Amino acid sequence: MEQWLVLAAVMLATGCVAGVLAGLFGIGGGIVIVPVLEGALGILGVDPAIRMHIAVATSLATIIPTSIASTLAHHRKNAVDFNIVRRWAIFVLLGSLLGTWLAVQLTSDTLALVFATLAFLVALKMIFLPNARNLTAAVPRGFWVPIIPGFIGCASSMMGIGGGTFSVMILTLFNQPIHRAVGTAALLGLVISLPGTIGFVLTGLNDARLPPGSLGYVNLIGLALIAPATVLTAPLGAKLAHRFSAARLSMLFGIFLLLAAGRLVLASGEVEPDPAIECFDCAT
């Protein structure tokens, strides 16, 4: 019982931090939720082979209410571009479903290293070239419409994040103001997290190694504790975002990504699946 109480406190704290980050950067908080949940599941003795899948799936589930709360907060500041969302939504959704399928096929180490590389490159751009948003004068149409949002949806669902990590950088490269990019990314996070969550539920339904309270790879206990905290604190993050200048917000976002990339590199390759652990009950 004491162990579960400690884990509950950790999950609640994680939800609070993730909510602030969701509102501040439009990232959905997944980059915080995933590693903490993975560690918590390790303490409980969940098989390492599925811990990352549970963490990513549960993170995506918590992003659903967080994205709604963050989007509403940014919409009140007129910082959500609904025209972009209408053009991109279907391709983001399809990319999210593809990313969910790939995440089930690939190892967590591969996913971590790929994302760490991308996060590092994005961070360098946001820190050292915050005003270099002149690839195009506006968001591209035509050939690029399915490719760009498809990539955002695919990469984001593979890592259990809401899409802001990629959406914010890409939208600013297309001459979108940082605050509007963050607000739009928050709504795109809903388009990513909803189908991604459904996909993880369906692919994990028959896995006997899942811990108690799981619906597929989504752990409902973690969802119940983290989601309310993220919803309550996301508006605070959105409020803080509008107190920073565009240059300062861009630099903060870049520094955050550098830290996230470093964590992913350090975490990769730490644990291989233990064949002795066949189900959650074996750890007790």
Number of helices: 10
Q: List unreliable stretches of 5+ residues.
A: 271-278
How would you describe the shape? globular
Average pLDDT metric: 79
Distance linking N and C termini: 13 Å
- Coarse structural class: mainly alpha
Strand content: under 5%
Largest sheet: number of strands, sense, barrel closure? 2 strands, antiparallel
Describe this structure in words.
- Helix 1 (2-25) runs parallel beside helix 9, helix 2 (30-43) runs antiparallel to helix 3 (48-76) and helix 6 (144-159) runs antiparallel to helix 7 (164-173).
- It is built from 10 helices and 2 strands.
- The model is unreliable at 271-278 (pLDDT under 50).
- The longest helix is centred in the first third of the chain and has 29 residues, at 48-76.
- Helix content is 73%, strand content 1%.
- The chain has one domain (2-283).
- By secondary structure, the protein is mainly α.
- A two-stranded antiparallel ribbon has the order 1-2.
